[in-house]
Write the structure tokens for this entry.
Amino acid sequence: MKLRKYILTVIIGITAMTVLSSCGNKENAAKEQPAQSTQEIFAMDTYMSLTAYGNNSEEAVNKAVQEINRLDAMFSVGNADSDVTKINENGSGEVSEETAFIMNRAMQVSEKTNGAFDITIYPLMELWGFTTKNYRVPESNEIAEALKGVSYTNVSVNGQQVALTGGSSIDLGGIAKGYTSSRVIQIMKDCGIEHAIVNLGGNVQVLGTKTDGSDWRVAIQNPASENSYLGILSTADKAVITSGGYERYFEQDGQVYHHIIDPQTGYPSDSDLTSVTIVCSDGTTADALSTALFVMGLDGAKELYRSGAIDFDMILFDGSKVYVSEGIKDTFSTDMDKEIITRQP
Ligand code: AMP
Ligand code: MG
């Protein structure tokens, strides 16, 4: 699933770039093309692609790959030495500044989404088999038991000191990739790069514009079909991060069970949305919000957007209609039935 999604996004990205370069006039064709470097890797359980343009692009991409591997080791629940594993085992302790930063950001989003985003979801990820890929539908009493430890209010972060109460344990899977894409973009900037695009398993972040000064064109996948998309967003200097049940799921007795859990029920969220894309300058916030809004559903997402409590734009899909926030209404093109969500209802 991930591979197909990744390939689709890359193909569309490349097609968009090819169309533009092949449409260039003679003057552009005569100009020297800037240096470009691309790497494709598998990390954080997904396929990733990093492309930077300019003189230092090779060094920038190499450093970015090192950074991804460093962060993967720090956040992974599957790594015995990660900050997250140590906190889950010991219940408290000191974490890196970066882990503390992410946990603080996660808590802010939890508060603003009434707990729809909750990193203490970890026992349920285990129970449903999403951590080991030994999937199963738990008994309702098992879910009730696991839910006892699910509350972001059990997490406290003071500087780099973290404590979990109530038997809670954490999973940063809903926010870590967004932080990682932000870091990758920062590393590229530090290397003097002005134009770059990274795609971490469908989570895209772009630096600047394309080298010709036009916006990047990011295809948003149609959750109903791996080979089509909801539309294309033209954007610059933004994270474009998508959550959907189609990204990871299993099927049992004709029923689909996906990996985004509603912290209220302990079951895969059953909202009316099938895909949520957040467009935001900050990748970390975008990632947490995409997961949260998927759980909250259409009305909750509209309400949060209208409240103005967080600065973001969104593309929502409910299986038949696309809902686009007003900040990107002119830059998201789609052939689908579309409704614009304004700040004022
Ligand atoms: P994403 O693809 O960003 O929506 O993140 C999904 C991942 O976030 C899952 O694989 C879990 O690791 C974690 N997760 C699932 N449900 C939640 C939730 N309600 N709040 C926070 N993290 C979650
Ligand atoms: Mg997320």
